[in-house]
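hiii so um. not sure if this is the right channel but i have a protein structure encoded as tokens and i wanna go backwards to a sequence. like what aa goes where. can anyone help
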């Protein structure tokens, strides 16, 4: 009986050694996973919550923002937030029969936090050409803005403050400014 028991003990010991050596080797071979994918290129515009209340804003967080201005003030500053994971350009077009666009310029630019690309200010090209209202006005172009975060993250946007000056033609004027971001 003794040799059969000894043989069984040896089999258990060999099984334990095989499990202890071969299973971890097999597990290590399966620790590597390769994943491939792409992220859609995206540019989003929104108006900062700090914006004045005398304007109506539609389309916050999409590639188009529509701002309706009315007879209170012919000069308005709009803090526009730009988030992108690719290079971008922003164009503007004013629609109105009761006011004329006199000035559309960039008054200020600054990053909103640590998830903004470090080269964004030096890479931003702000257009300083005379107004040509026959087609959309190019406001600015630039490189990728956001290094991470979401469309609602407070620290991954570039704030571009636009100065908009209109010349009212009638006392009860309205003007609609359409801002379009493209990649």
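sure thing!! here u go:
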């Amino acid at each position: 009986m003794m040799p059969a028991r000894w043989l069984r003990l040896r089999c258990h010991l060999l099984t334990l050694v095989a499990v202890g050596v071969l299973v971890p080797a097999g597990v290590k071979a399966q620790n590597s996973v390769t994943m491939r994918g792409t992220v859609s290129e995206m540019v989003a515009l929104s108006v900062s919550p700090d914006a004045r209340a005398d304007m109506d804003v539609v389309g916050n967080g999409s590639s188009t923002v529509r701002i309706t201005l009315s007879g209170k003030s012919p000069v308005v500053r709009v803090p526009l937030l730009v988030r992108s994971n690719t290079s971008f350009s922003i164009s503007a077009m004013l629609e109105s029969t009761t006011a004329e666009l006199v000035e559309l310029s960039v008054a200020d630019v600054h990053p909103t936090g640590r998830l903004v690309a470090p080269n964004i200010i030096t890479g931003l090209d702000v257009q300083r050409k005379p107004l040509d209202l026959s087609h959309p006005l190019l406001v600015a172009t630039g490189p990728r803005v956001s290094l991470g975060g979401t469309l609602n993250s407070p620290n991954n946007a570039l704030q571009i403050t636009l100065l908009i000056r209109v010349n009212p033609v009638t006392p009860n004027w309205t003007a609609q400014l359409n801002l379009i971001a493209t990649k």
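oh and The mean pLDDT is 84.
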